[in-house]
Amino acid sequence: MADPIKLHGAKVQSGRRRGEDEMKASNQAGERMGGGEGDDKRQRFLSSLESCTNLPSPPVLAAQLVELGKNPDVSIAEVSRLIGLDPATSAKIMRLANSALYARQRKIENLRQAINLFGLEGSLSMALSISVVGELRGNNERQSHFDFGHYWRRSIASATACQVIGNALAAGRREEVFLAGLLQDIGMLVINAWSADFYQSMDGRPVTHEDLQAFELDMLGMDHAAVGSHVLNAWSFPDILVNAIAGSHHPLAGSVSQEFITVAKVLNVASDIADLLNGGVSGDNDFLLLEKKAQELLGIDREKLTEVISAVAEEVQPLADLFDIDLGENFVAGMIADQAREVLMVRNLRAIQEASVLKQVNVNLQRKTRTLEEENRRDPLTFLYNRAYHDKIVHEEFSSAQENHWPLSLAFIDLDHFKAVNDTYGHQTGDAVLQRGAQLLVQATRGSDVVARYGGEEFVIIMPGTAEDGVKVVCRRILEAFRQTEFDSPADAEPFHVTASIGIAAYHPDAGFETAEDLVRAADKAVYAAKLAGRDRMIFYDTRYND
Predict the structure, then answer these.
(1) pLDDT digits over 94-132, tens only?
(2) CB proximity list for 334: less than 8 A, separation 6 or greater
(3) What is the pLDDT of residues 482-538, one digit of tens each?
(4) Beta-carbon count within 10 A of 67 CB
(5) Are 411 and 475 in contact (CB under 8 A)?
(6) CA 395 to chain centre
(7) What confidence score (pLDDT) does residue 547 get?
(8) What would the 3-class secondary structure string for 237-301 be?
(9) What is the pLDDT of residue 462?
(10) What would the pLDDT profile of 416-446 be if each residue is shown by its tens digit?
(11) Cα–Cα distance measured from residue 291 to residue 215, given in angstroms and rounded to the nearest whole number
């Protein structure tokens, strides 16, 4: 046995408070021995782990990401700040954001834009994946009989399959299920670290995943899925990972954590796809067995399964490159994709019921809560963000721009002669102009921009990561959109036009803005200058207007 060492941050025993039930549920379905003997072996193994000092440990960044993810009020600025502290992780996040997997017309130019693309949870999951894999590969590949190359090839293939399936079925966010697939076999690394000779005794035996699991149960009283769940629980990783990995081998076994059973099913099917890609196929029957499982667990029919396998074959190489994993010459993704099409598409199998993703009570409550929160952020007339939310976001973005030396632009838009619209056509027509004007602003901006109604006929656009050249393009588009739009008048009156005046303030380290309020006031003064200059134009803030 390897020299005993401790688990980083906490002994393995600390994870039993939440994870032991999940491990037992996972192991009961695959138990090959008497219950009493299996329990005794499991307890002896867990006790020996408590004194083992050679186990893998989470990197500092991973621990910080996990802690940050527990905060329901975490902001994009906080996530940006933490990820930005690690240049290697930041670079890979940027690289992934600009890859074909997230194809966009506009190039991602800084970390803030990349995090906007992934979203809060997606960014945390991808950063956690990059951080953990780097640590495990760097510290755990010591001399042993364990095939680390095969392990990492299978892990990246399984993670890719999880991402593709999860995205197709909306079974969680794609980055979150990717992380689950990447770590589902981490228990094997733990077992190998506990004893470098453990897997040597399998020499000469079949090496399918099921045989490996049976061997672990026979020797330890628990399989690597239960071990991995136990360790991730000790590291305080999210419940979705701990519970889904615990049930990944037997997702229909009645695990305690029923709310995570869908992700466990995705892991189970993705694992078989990874085996096909990493080891090849022995015949058509391999595809038929996979098709049957995909139908039973996820409701994926043969046509959808061929699409999934093809997508995995296309996406696995760039993801392997991102994580510096060599797929090797025996990795047969392209060939398997072609064989899957040939085998599965010629089978005239009956249509099966579409996948029904489980909707647990807590998920529904969270969705309703998010809906209510979103409604509270919105202006009831235009459904743009309201003044209160604007004030919150502009402070967050200004602080983030100051700390990270990112550009930040703010455009203040005021509709020209709007009082005359109300006086001439009535307030109902005025409301319709505000609603249509709000639509024009949203259409002219980008997904990362925040468009808010400031009050009356005044609007503000916050543009994170955007310098003066970028804001000019957006504002010219806005001006032209208003010039080209005809607004309907009541009764038989002729349609009319409404133009806009825009004031722009752009933050950069030498701009002289000390606070977010300074930036907003500067844009307000610039829009006033635009009105004085004749309206229907944009003007950048200049110290001449700082009276």
Answers:
(1) 888 787 766 555 677 778 888 877 777 777 778 878 877
(2) 313
(3) 999 999 888 777 899 999 999 999 998 888 899 999 999 999 999 999 999 999 999
(4) 12
(5) yes
(6) 25
(7) 37
(8) CCHHHHHHHHCCCCCCCCCCCHHHHHHHHHHHHHHHHHHHHHHCCCCHHHHHHHHHHHHHHHCCC
(9) 95
(10) 999 999 999 999 999 999 999 999 999 999 8
(11) 26
Q: What is the distance between the terminal CA atoms of the chain, rounded to a whole angstrom?
A: 77
381: its two tokens? 């007339």
Token couple for 68: 């940050």
Report which secondary-structure segment, H or E, holds 355: none
And the tokens for 272? 């078989």
Residue 254 binned pLDDT confidence (cut-offs 50, 70, 90): low
Q: 56: closest CA among 270, 254, 230?
A: 230
- Amino acid (1-letter code) at residue 269: V
Residues β-bridged to residue 411: 461, 504
Return the exposure string of 87-96: e unless at least 16 CB atoms fall within 10 Å of the residue's CB, then b: eebbebbbeb
Q: How far is CA 148 from CA 142, 143, 227, 433, 533, in A?
A: 9, 10, 18, 63, 69
- What are residue 522's phi and psi, to 5 degrees? -65, -45
| 66, two tokens | 């996990």
Read off the amino acid at residue 37: E
Helix (H) or strand (E) holding 42: helix 35-50
Q: Phi/psi at 54 (nearest 5 deg)?
A: -110, 10
In terms of Cα–Cα distance, which of 52, 46, 55, 57 is closest to 23? 46
Cα atoms in the 13 Å half-sphere on the side-chain side of 142: 16
Is 0.90 surpassed by the pTM of this model?
no
